[in-house]
Structures are given as structure tokens and as C-alpha cells.
Design brief:
Arc Repressor Mutant, subunit A; globular; 3 domains; two-stranded antiparallel ribbon; 233 residues; single chain; mainly alpha; two-stranded antiparallel sheet; DNA polymerase, domain 1; 12 helices
């Protein structure tokens, strides 16, 4: 979750180990080059509210559809078009909402339940935000620069294209927030392996090539959520 913070990284790291630094250090990357942020308080409350109103049973794709007022079969199946949160998030597009949910998970306001196909659950930390007792600043998504030359990716015949694109979108979001090329998050070959092996828990995800302990902890839940939600669709 440290990659998602907008304040002093050293303060956040020390807080993690129950040590405290009263003032920003002035030397870490976020102090020297502060990320662009926006007041995400209202968006965060909407994201938390839609998870609560849908009984914390659904993954990010469905929650975004509810927020944006989509006319999907799943929404009508569960009667979510009648919820007060239905259609209240049309001011943000799908990618922006993905960024909001990703940052809320990274900061501990929500968690991903891998045993329930990536359903998003609320954490105790979110209560002050929902009660209008605190605000939150979120990182702005960095718009990707146009590539000078598109490199064609050769996919294995058995790769599910829809899942492939969903995993690429998840990877792109992390890459933009970290300010790194997508392959730094995961190489194309690792994404293809995800499509073919379909890992649905952390143990299986950790067996993929190119997934070390740090990447497993940092990215595993989000990518597993994409896979499990795709399989459940």
C-alpha cells in the first residue's frame, strides 16, 4: 500500500512499524516530488457506500456499473437499480473509479475477499470517512503517453482475450500510479500465464513466473480479483 500514499513515505513506513515522525522527512520521493492529487472525499464515500448498499458481496466491476447507472442483467437480477447509490457516479469514468477503489484497498479502507470472487468489504478504518469526519486526497491517474511504436503481442491460442484485456487494464492502472512502464509491474508473459493457469488464491498466484514475494503481496489480491470475477461472470 505504500506505493499509493500521497504524503511523506518515510512517515508512512515508520507508522507501519508503530514508530512516529512528527514532520515530513523532506528527503523521500513524495516529499521531493509530491504526486498530483485531487480531493477524492466524495468519490471515496460513494465507493464505500455502494459496497455497503450491495451488502459487500460484489467485485469492483459490478460496483462501478451500479455507480455509473449501467443497464446490465446482473444489476436488474439483484434489483440494484433501486438502490440510492445507483447512477450517482456518472461524473467519473470506469478507469477513474478503478483508481478510486484500488487506492481505498491499498490504504486499508476496503479489502478484497478472494474466497468470494473478489468481493470488496469495508474495513473499520472507513467509518470516519463515511461519517464526514475526515477527508481523503487521492493520486491523480497519469495519462499514458502515446507509444511511438506499437509492439504486437503474440498470444497463445488458449488465452481468453476478454480476461487478457482486463488484466492489462489492471496492470496499466498500477503502472500509471507508480510512474513506471507496465512491464515493471508484470511482463506480458506473466499476464498470459495468468490467463492460462487462472490462479484463484495467493498460493497459486505465487507459483507464476515473474511473481516474487513483494509482487505477490503488492499486486496479488487485485489481479486475483480480476480473474475470479471474470470466471464468475
Amino acid at each position: 500500500g505504500l506505493c499509493e500514499i500521497t504524503s511523506c513515505r518515510r512517515q508512512a513506513l515508520l507508522d507501519y512499524f508503530d514508530e512516529h515522525l512528527e514532520q515530513p522527512c523532506g528527503n523521500c520521493d513524495t516529499c521531493l516530488d509530491p504526486p498530483q492529487t485531487w480531493d477524492g472525499t466524495e468519490a471515496a464515500r460513494k465507493a464505500l457506500s455502494v459496497a455497503f448498499r450491495t451488502e459487500q458481496r460484489f467485485g469492483v466491476n459490478h460496483l462501478i456499473e451500479v455507480l455509473r447507472g449501467a443497464d446490465s442483467d446482473k444489476i436488474f437480477q439483484f434489483g440494484h437499480q433501486h438502490l440510492p447509490v445507483y447512477g450517482i457516479g456518472k461524473d467519473l469514468d470506469n478507469n477513474q473509479w478503478r483508481s478510486v477503489f484500488r487506492q481505498l484497498v491499498a490504504r486499508g479502507y476496503m479489502s478484497v475477499d478472494l474466497e468470494r470472487y473478489g468481493a470488496l468489504s469495508l474495513e473499520e478504518k472507513c467509518r470516519p470517512l463515511l461519517r464526514n469526519e475526515e477527508t481523503i486526497s487521492l493520486r491523480k491517474d497519469i495519462k499514458p503517453k502515446a507509444a511511438k511504436q506499437q509492439t504486437k503481442v503474440h498470444l497463445a491460442p488458449d488465452v481468453d482475450i476478454a480476461l487478457w484485456e482486463a488484466l492489462r487494464e489492471c496492470r496499466r492502472g498500477y503502472a500509471e500510479e507508480l510512474g513506471v512502464p507496465p512491464y515493471v509491474v508484470f511482463h506480458d508473459s506473466t499476464l498470459q500465464e495468468m490467463c492460462l493457469r487462472l490462479p484463484q488464491n495467493m498460493e497459486e498466484f505465487g507459483e507464476l513466473s515473474g511473481v516474487g514475494e513483494r509482487k505477490l503481496e503488492r499486486y496479488g489480491p487485485a489481479f486475483i480479483s480480476v480473474i475470479t470475477e471474470h470466471l464468475a461472470a
